[in-house]
Amino acid sequence: MSQNIDNEIRETEQELKHVGSCTTKGLTDEQIAQLDERFFLAVEKLSWLKGRRDIRV
């Protein structure tokens, strides 16, 4: 299970890097809002995953 959490952390960090580097040029307000939402959901997920990793025994 701990390896599973580590893999999810890596995947979520990659998602954050990707979404954080996306340009908003040419996007509609709705598309920008969706991109922002993906970013902040990934931040929240990463925080939760790291918390789960820290309480492993």
Give the number of DSSP strands. Answer: 0
Number of domains: 1
Uncertain stretches = none
Q: Major beta sheet, specifics?
A: none
Q: How much strand?
A: under 5%
Q: Terminal Cα separation, in Å?
A: 11 Å
Task: Tag the structure with descriptive keywords.
single chain, 57 residues, mainly alpha, 81% helix
Q: How would you portray this structure in words?
A:
By secondary structure, this protein is mainly α. It has one domain (2-54). Helices cover 81% and strands 0% of the residues. It is built from two helices and no strands. Helix 1 (2-21) runs antiparallel to helix 2. The longest helix has 26 residues, at 29-54. The radius of gyration is 14 Å and the shape is elongated. It starts with a helix and ends with a helix. The model has no long low-confidence stretch (mean pLDDT 93). This is ABC transporter ATP-binding protein. Keywords: ATP-binding, Nucleotide-binding. One of its GO terms (molecular function) is ATP binding.
What's the arrangement of secondary structure elements?
Elements: H1 2-21, H2 29-54
Helix pairs in contact: 1-2
Q: Outline of this structure?
A:
The chain is mainly alpha-helical. The chain has helices at residues 2-21, 29-54.
